[in-house]
Design brief:
2 helices; ten-stranded antiparallel beta sheet
Length: 181
Amino acid sequence: MDSIIRGANWYVEELNCRLRLETVKLPTLSREMVPLAMGGGFFALELPSEIQPLTAEATLNGSHADIRSRFGREPGDWTTCYYYESLLNVFPTNAAGEQQAAAGPGRMGRIVILKGLLNEVDQPEVRGLKPSGATRFNWSSIVHYHDSVDGRVIHKFDIATNTLIINGVNYTAEHNRLIAA
């Protein structure tokens, strides 16, 4: 599947930011790496461990009290953000992964749901009657991340339920069963 982004939108709870949205930077996905020391070996190896804390950023044109008012909330008073993406699939494939030339390009939807805290608001400098840039909002303390394309779960991380789903496979189900989580 080769897809091109044809448009996007950002919601903060029920607030549609489409008309004021400048940019969105979704979280960088990375894992903590731990060294594995092997006795008598000639090689170093690092193995993945926990998923690093997630952060997201959105820049909005203008000054928005409805978004800024979410700054300073305490853990537990989470804000949910929704990112919607329209994708154009230029080389559609069937379920077996074979390219379907006669089908033509197809549209797909991507939805990313984040639940966390607005922990930084960087307001632009104002010169005369004009701001020097957009207002930057940084979301961190993200406790829930759910990325899906056309209903297929690509990633789901949930701290409260200790859930890690990657490409539809629940990597934590057996672990949670063993520790009675």
